[in-house]
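Convert to structure. Protein one:
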Amino acid sequence: MAKTILITGGTRGIGRALAEQYLARGFAVIATGSTPRSVDQARTALPQIDWQVCDLREQADLAALCQHIGRRALDRVVHNAGVQQARNWFSPGGEAISIEDETRINFTAPVLLTRALFDNVHSAHGRWIFITSGLAIAPKQSAAVYCANKAALRVFCKSLNGQIAVTGSPIKVCEAILPLVDTAMTQGRGRGKISPEQAAAEIIRGAERGLAEIYVGKVRWLMRLRAFWPNGAENLMIRH
């Protein structure tokens, strides 16, 4: 029987690349998108995947996703979906994404979904992969809420791993820390981006090794810089 993976935010970017690469590895893939239109388009391109509409801002959608999964064992769970809104706190203007929605999608939903899926004992095994960012370590001034959300998710992973160590659970929690990736979310931002395909491949390799922290791309250099010059990384990023 094929192993099963759940990927949130699978219709584009890193999530789409992960869905394609896990599908190629023989996994049964369940993937979500936030709107019926995005899911319909993804289903047309990749009908082999079990596509589900799930607006992570809505508790009812999270409950419906868990009901759809039911008692099915999940061998991999990837909390990938994320959004980022630039804000100038001293010159507020119109925002496409509210603070509440940004926090629900980036932080609250992964935590609530983890709690709900843990209630299904058949799901409580395998690799649970949380996608964070180098901005959780070296934040930038233009996206304070996003950076804070990812930092919170990073701390959640560490605490969850602590409980796993105490209980002896077979779950392995992997935090995948990403650099700037060339996706719709990062259009017009920064240089030296890696492709979603490269990011996905490195995430998968790290997860298969069961790494608690997966350093993707340039994040390896960020962690080395942080080890030798703790404030240096923040000083480099905070002006962006």
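Protein two, convert as well:
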Amino acid sequence: MRRNMRQLVLGTSAGATALALVTAGITLTGAASAAENAAAAPPSTLAAITDLVGWGTQNGGTTGGGSAATTTVTSASALTTALGSSSAAVIRVSGTISCSGMLRVRSNKTIIGNAGATIAGCGLNINGDRNVIIRNITFRNWNDDAINVQTSATNVWVDHNTFTAGYDGAVDIKRGSDFITVSWNRVYSHDKSMLLGHSDDNAAQDTGHLRVTYHHNWFDASTQRHPRVRFGNPVHVYNNYYRNNSGYGVASTEGAGVLVENNSFEGVSDPFHLGEGDSGPGTLVARGNLLVGSGGGQTGGSVKAIPYGYTADAASSVKSIVTANAGAGRISL
């Protein structure tokens, strides 16, 4: 099922959405009070599956290479050179590129996979740079992270990729990075999916940053960190589909504030909680989530208001929408 437009919630207010979900027999979890989430449901905007939504639209937006010249790469050496250029560029990845380690991505790059594009064995490192888009690529067997965003990198959009069978994080964001959207990706046959904030000791650099939107991702029997959050507030996790995650879904730790909204959890005993390992608790507000064969989740505290417009799909539609459209190869670019 490929659709140009997502299914929309009928009624844009939180109250209308809640009423629609209750009428449909959907379990509502951790509904936020008005005091906790004043203005947390902003006016809706109609967004196509290929549009940028969320934190990546803020701080001037994320345009990548824009209308810069397109370079097609088919080897690790060509990819490394193109990514490391100081000039804006649109880089098309063709075929399977085998590599190792982490390849540095400089500012103002759009990295797009042609049909079947795969990066195997290595990952992409956005280290202190800005305005980067990564789309439509399958990452597998990476030996560090598949995508690492760090050191105050800003305005990054990770969209419509597939991640499988890697060593560490699929998409890790840390060290003061900010204004990032992670959308329409699929993670399967993998353990540590998405880390936000790398250390409990990094509050000085991370507080006030690490603002990320995760939407319409398919966490397909992946184990944990969907995401695991430190310090960032507000972090917005909405319209994701969680299936048979054996560890947990979302963890809010170290004073983070996470809004978990209109997601679909199926066969997930621990869909969301506060604290993780040695990390102290953050806050977490959950509303409009669908829990099928899943635990009730843990909530607590309040979360800062979401500043951008968005339209959340009804949780009852998330499974069909996400499984039809998430991952590499689901859009024409």
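The first helix runs from residue 14 to 23. The two ends are 18 Å apart (CA to CA).
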